[in-house]
Amino acid sequence: MNPIDTFLSAQTYAVAGASARQHKYGNKVFRALIASGRETYPLNPITEEVEGHRAYPTIAELPTVPESLSIITPPEVTRRVVSDAIAAGVRSIWMQPGAEDEDASQAAREAGLNVIDDGACVLVLLARE
């Protein structure tokens, strides 16, 4: 299975950088995953709720470990999110355009995670489903 199919075949998801503001990319990705019928949790340390779903500050505080994690954060935040994802046991990460961080990608790959960090956009792929 290719990396994108692996990511999209998960049962549970989280979106790091999910935003309560609908014009923000993190909100659009969260809504697209929910609309596609996927169990998805928003991660945002300063927002309590995203689209009627309780937001969680960190992966460790989620009720379950997501299999796949979409990351829409600045690269310096991405490093911490990926470190948390590795520690929690997340299996697949997708750094959305602008969130990519070379050190985080390398750490994730070395930990055995499926990594998408090539500028591909999850919204484009979900629109094709």
TrEMBL record:
This is CoA-binding domain-containing protein. Pfam families: CoA_binding_2. Signal peptide: none annotated. It comes from Rhodopirellula sallentina SM41. Residues 7-99 form the CoA-binding domain.
